[in-house]
Amino acid sequence: MKMYAVHGKILHVNLSNGRIWVEKFGNDLLSMFIGSRGIMARLYWDLVKPSTDPLAPDNVLMVGAGTFTGTPMPSAGRTIVTFKSPATGRYFKSSVGGDFGLKLKMNGYDIIVIHGASEEPVYIYIEGDHVEIRSAKHLWGLDVRSAHNELIRRHGVHADTLLIGPAGERLVKYASINVSIYNVAARGGGGAVLGSKKLKGIVVSKGATNVEVAHPKKYYELAMKVVRNIMKDEALIATAKFGTASATMGLDSTSTLPVYNFRKSYWEHAYKNSGEYYVEAGYLIGRVGCAQCIVSCHRHTKTNKFGGVDTVGPEYETSNALGGNIGNADTDALIKMNDLANIYGLDTISLGSVIAWVMETYERGYLKGIVKELGTEPIWGNVEAALKLIEKIARREGIGDLLAEGLSRACRKVDPETCKWAVEANGLEHSRVDTRVAKAYALAFALNPRGPDHLHTETFAEFGFTEDAKKLIERITGHREWAGVGKVEGRPEIVKWHEEMYAITDSVGFCAFITTAGFAVDEYLMSELFTAATGIGKDAKTILTDGERIVTLERMIQVREGRRRIHDTLPWRIMNEKIKTRDGKEYIVSAEELNTMLDKYYELRRWSKNGIPLPDKLKELKLEFTIPEALKALQSG
Amino acid sequence: MVSQGYEVNTSQYLGKCTGCHLCELICSFTHFGKSSTLLSRIVIWKDKAKAVFIPMVCISCPGMPCAKVCPTGAIVKDEKTGMPKIIESKCLGAECGKCVEACPYHAINFNPEVYAYPLICDLCGGDPQCVKVCWPGALRIVELTKSFSKERFLLATQSLTKLKEVLKELRG
Questions:
Q1: Residue B138 domain flag
Q2: Does CATH number 2.40.40.10 belong to domain A9-204?
Q3: Which of the residues A169, A176, A238, A280 has the least number of beta carbons within 10 Å of its own beta carbon?
Q4: How far is CA A138 from CA A122, A146, A151, A439, in A?
Q5: Nearest-5° angle of CA A417, CA A420, CA A423?
Q6: B1–A contact, CB cutoff 8 A
Q7: Cβ contacts of A617 within 8 Å, gap of 6 or more
Q8: The pLDDT value given to residue B8
Q9: Tally of domains within chain B
Q10: Which residues of chain A lie closer than 8 angstroms to B20, CB-CB?
Q11: B51 vs A99: CB contact, 8 Å cut-off?
């Protein structure tokens, strides 16, 4: 049967024995799981055992292009990477922009599944039906930018790459996977998974395949509607102009900007970490668009300091993680650090969290020997120390070897007491928003299968920064006044809607900015788009049910991997130390507050008190194949 | 949008393009009913390391070097838009490709593996779809006045110079 929008083709590559094969799928799977993220979660269920070691050959890493990717749909070019994470030890999905997904579709595939491990460094080259595993001996050790340029020289200007840097090769637990050099599937250590497989990367050729949709005329009209919606969206206009770091001043004003390792939530130098400042001070050279994205929030920046840096970024998260979080108001240094993290292949959120922890730990009298090693004191705002730490972590040199393990492991080794200011949970360093003040974020972060992080369910509307955001909160909860920080009302409902919408957003390839940060596409328009693209009929209600199916399957995967209510939690500091806002109010996420929200949320989802989806719900969502595991978990408690 | 006495043109503004490829996808989609970067009449060239993005598209140079070299006279000027137009029944396709080589601006996209004939921008008959989706503003519709005609050549030449630089760097 002919498929629309997708090719219905999964490319499998086994690096252990060199086997390459194509698996086909049909509309039944697409209708149930919508696209990349959903389908790969389904594949993960069959392919990755609960006992699998994330860095062993039997872990798989999957790369999937969105259902709308390759069609003329604006901002729908995002790619999903799915694997078992060496940071969290569980199922992990990461989303990335760039051109890789578009080129993958142009080569006739929707998803790549990488099995096994090679003995020698290799890369995979894909040119339509011609797929090859090639030697990467000459690329091993190269930074991402150099490796990309080398591969482009060989495979043509219109090819694209997915690569790891030296950090991934050395199995740094928060090594990233980079697409088009500067677009990063950063979180969870996917780079280390590729490193463990000795896979430097994947090259997709310019591609000679095309993508068709089921109802071209309707689809064209809808695409133009999305274009118009994007152009008039307040949040997206700001993002286009000032990048994601346009968020800095908004978070500063609402006292949700974590600085000095979450000891303050606003900062007098915040402006130096803001997108507005990058433009005003002349750091911005131009804008960079991911595939199909007319918002083009990525930044092309330059500084003449530090020997001259011409690069892309920093994003908001980086601007804060390596900015205020480590007391850094030196924008030139920030740009340099961002570039180093990019080309070495490091997640800037985890990296900044680790450096901030080193600074606080040193301040509290530990790690005294580090001064000799760094040649400088790791005190707040010392960019020289930060730059040295980045080099050491990427190469696992000296103290870098310990720090490369991530906060949860490093703090225990140094002294369990230091784990109190290691701002992580479930093995993942906390994203750059203060969840003590933003309560829907707190609940979403606690439930997130990735750990305390924003890019799985971002409840940005909670802030009520724009009229559209307030309207959305009203639409979900019935209460417009529930938009705003510090409020606990309706948070389980807000999180539930966002989780479902986000699962669909990821699966079709849309950027989250289109649906849950900006509001150009809601579930009504989304269902129309999906129907016109694939020919599979959906409405707003059924598409959210599909989102619920994906969210529930991901939960079942993690339940099978041992996740329970006790893991739906936040870092120690967030739950035990109060934060003072600009206007003198104090906030914390108490165990009681989190438990109340979790109880309500589990009830909405029909999960047990211990966070296990109940069999009747699984049946309703057509996830019968997971029921035996649910029963096992319910019995064992 | 097009009325008699007007000529409409897309123009390239170096530095405004963010390299998102949406123009290519909407171009192929509206012309062929399917999307492919190889079926587009506009091509985005990139140096990703330096974040340089260069859209190349026909600027309908008055001399029409593409038409001059065509051995079968398959390239004519479209009266409504002023753009060169390929009469496919006369075109030799993959056997020839002379127009592609003759175009000074790399503005003819020819991939015989996906389509038998070269592709040249036709301004969608006067209502260019790429312009509609280009929010970054790299593509615009501009009335073809004498002064703009000059500016357009300047911009195209700048793009070309940059493209040559980029290709030299990337191809090593």
A1: yes
A2: no
A3: A280
A4: 10, 11, 11, 49
A5: 140
A6: no
A7: A552, A605, A606, A607
A8: 58
A9: 1
A10: 77, 289-294, 296
A11: no
Chain A hits for B166, CB-CB cut-off 8 Å, are 157
Buried b (16+ CB within 10 A) or exposed e, A21-40: eeeebebebbebbbbbbbbb
Task: Name chain A contacts of B171, Cβ cutoff 8 Å.
Answer: 153, 157
| Stretch B48-57: mean pLDDT | 94
pLDDT higher than threshold 50 for residue B51: yes
Range of the domain at B157: 8-60+106-166
Predicted confidence (pLDDT) per residue in A436-468, tens digit:
999 999 999 999 999 999 999 999 999 998 899
| Sole residue written with tokens 């900007």 | A257
* Amino acid present at A194: L
Which residues touch A438 (CB under 8 Å, ≥6 apart)? Answer: A254, A256, A459, A462, A463, A485
Query: Both tokens of residue A129?
Result: 């039906």
Contact A157 B46 (CB under 8 A): yes
Chain B contact probe: residue of A206, A285, A294 with most B CBs at under 10 A: A294
B21 in a domain, yes or no?
yes
Confirm whether A9-204 and A241-429 share one CATH topology: no
- For residue A554, which of A44, A124, A171, A59 has the smallest C-alpha distance? A44
Does B168 reach chain A within 8 Å, measured CB to CB? no
Answer yes or no: is pLDDT of B7 > 70.
no
How many pairs of residues across A and B have Cβ atoms under 8 Å apart? 126
User: Does B131 map to a domain?
Assistant: yes
- At residue B10, does pLDDT exceed 80? no
Q: Which of B68, B72, B132, B138 is nearest to B103 (CA)?
A: B68
ipTM score of the complex? 0.96
Alpha-carbon gap: A294 to the closest alpha carbon of chain B (Å)? 6
Domain spans, chain A: 9-204, 241-429, 439-519+539-636
Chain A neighbors of B133, CB-CB under 8 A: 72, 74, 223-224, 227, 294
- At A52, which amino acid appears? T
Task: Report the distance separating Cα A61 and Cα A394, nearest Å.
Answer: 22
Residue B27 lies in a domain: yes
Asked whether the beta carbons of residue B18 and residue A289 sit closer than 8 angstroms, the reply is yes
Query: Looking at the domain A241-429, which fold is it?
Result: 1.10.569
Q: How far apart are CA A430 and CA A427, in angstroms?
A: 9
The CATH code for residues A439-519+539-636 is: 1.10.599.10
Residue B29 Cα distances to A73, A151, A432, B25, B126, angstroms: 11, 30, 40, 6, 17
Mean pLDDT of A127-146: 98
Q: Do B172 and A206 touch (CB under 8 A)?
A: no
Residue with tokens 């479209």, as numbered in its chain: B78
Tokens representing A623? Answer: 């996830």
